[in-house]
Amino acid sequence: MKNSIPRVRTLINGGTPDRVPMFDLLRNTAVISHFAGTQLTEENGAELVYKAYEPAIDATRPMVKAPNIERSLTLEDGREQKIYKWTTWTEHRRYADSAAYEAVKRRELESFVAEWTPADEKAMQARVWDWYAEDRRKLGDVFYFPGVPGTDLMDIYGEIGLEEFCYYLADCPDIIVELLERNTFRTIRWVEHLPANHGMEAIFLGDDIAFNTGPLLNPDWMREHYFHRLARVIAAYHARGIKVLFHSDGNLNSILGDLVESGIDGLNPIEVLAGMDVGDIHRQFPKLFMTGGIDVSQLLPFGTPLQVRDAVRKAIDEAEGRIMIGSSTELNEEVPLANFLAMREAVLAG
Fold it and tell me: Counting Cβ atoms within 10 Å, is residue 301 exposed (0-12), middle (13-18) or buried (19+)?
């Protein structure tokens, strides 16, 4: 697409672009092959995937990557890892009980070095220049929202699984809060040490905090422990001139006000079947830009092109243009090419 970067830049800065942009993460062989002009394979994927983005969409998020060769691995610590075409599943860490978990995490916290070290600088420079800058170069005229550290609540519960996390949150709540504070401090320190020419206009900050029925954790707990830390992280990014696109699947309606008060500039992916509604969000928070909003659970894989086009027009109208149209998480293999093309054509038609 032409003029994608200035188009997205205009939208996220509160202006009105020539048309709404398209935003997505392509995990779809047919779509990538169509826009790259060659059939995607495991052998040509590293080149072909990036080639498909510029003609297909205006903006994307982490992680743009080639398809994997499917296989299973055993990690050094004995956990199983299964690598699928587009995703990787890793077995959760197991602890004997809450006391064992607390003891391990207490040692982690005690060994954390608060000062910024040469190793931290090297890792940060590699992330900014070897990852972010290289992705931007390969994507061409596509606006890129790099994935960055945040409060990383998802990392805490993702290590052990949500069920075990709930036990530990009940049995040793202080250690969970201390881990969250450690993550927050570490991220703010990282942001403050970004080079002046970091090149990031907006970032993708992901933390899944909701089920399809509502928040993952008690909103009162989140207000006491999560949102003020998220606000500190966002303020650090804003201080460096970086806008924040916040990602969480699920139904965020009861805590959306808390997210906006925390300072988020944009919201992704607007999971329609979980009860998120583009029009309702825009009416409550008209300055918030949205990305996604087109259901990828049922509509995109199983609907007709006409139904897809109708949904796109409705979302654009209800958002009054304050949206980047895309799937409600990522464009997976189940979406027919015809439905992606219908979504794209509806956007281009304005």
Answer: middle
Model pLDDT for residues 53-91, shown as the tens digit of each residue? 999 999 999 999 999 999 999 999 999 999 999 999 999
Amino acid identity of residue 172, one-letter, is C
What CA–CA distances, in Å, run from 97 to 17, 76, 94, 108? 54, 22, 9, 17
Instruction: Please name which of 72, 35, 64, 73 lies closest in space to residue 51, comparing C-alpha atoms.
Output: 35
Pair of tokens at residue 252: 């965020």
58 within 8 A of 23, measured Cβ to Cβ? yes
Q: How far is CA 240 from the centre of its chain?
A: 20
pLDDT score recorded for residue 19: 96
CATH of domain 4-66+98-349: 3.20.20.210
**Whole-model pTM?**
0.96
Q: Answer for the pair 49, 66: CB distance below 8 angstroms, yes or no.
A: yes
Alpha carbon dihedral 148, 152, 157, 158, in 10-degree steps, equals 10
Contacts of 232 (CB under 8 A, 6+ apart): 184, 188
> What is the CA 113 to chain-centroid distance, rounded?
28
